[in-house]
Amino acid sequence: MSDYSLETGEYLWRLTCDCCGKQKNRVWGFISKNGDAYAIYYALLNIEEERPRVGLTLSVGPWWDGSKPSQRSWVHLDVWSGNDGTHMGIRDPKESNFYPWEKGGTPLTREQAKLSDAIQEIWSVADFIVVTDAAVSSYLKSNGIDSMGREIRQADHPARSC
Q1: pTM over 0.85
Q2: What angle do CA 89, 52, 153 make, to 5 degrees?
Q3: Beta strands 53-60 and 85-91: pairing type?
Q4: Is the pLDDT reported for residue 121 higher than 70?
Q5: What is the 3-state secondary structure (H, E, C) of 93-137?
Q6: CB contact at 8 A, 46 and 65
Q7: Distance, first Cα to last Cα, the chain
Q8: Using alpha carbons only, what angle is made at residue 137 by residues 133 and 143, rounded to the nearest 5 degrees?
Q9: pLDDT tens column, 130-155
């Protein structure tokens, strides 16, 4: 098993969605693999929905100095809880509020991701985030959010994705 570690961003951002007007929270973080910068993610917590759902935009590949976006791939995932555990599905990258996200690398649709060499690593990193980021895991488990020391801030820009 790979040796991942997590460094969360310092803020939990409160946003208003510009398409539905609902409140959202966003957290982000960095993942290292075996000590090297390896992934960046942004998680949009849809806090006004009946069931907990996270829009997870995740870029996997080298992020250290000298690396290039062409060495990375990114996906936009829907993550939700069910009675039988956590589920994930790949959404169109254009639905991410970070699209086109050139620094994230190559955006992958569901069909492209299934054929990509990076897909197993994407699933592994996404699973790691869901378990390890306290804000994401607490929200998916209980619909409450453990900000885990993150400062809560009101964003001055809307979210672009439901």
Answers
A1: yes
A2: 110
A3: unpaired
A4: yes
A5: HHHCCCCCCHHHCEECCHHHHHHCCCHHHHHHHHHHHHHHCHHHH
A6: no
A7: 34
A8: 135
A9: 999 999 999 999 878 887 778 888 88
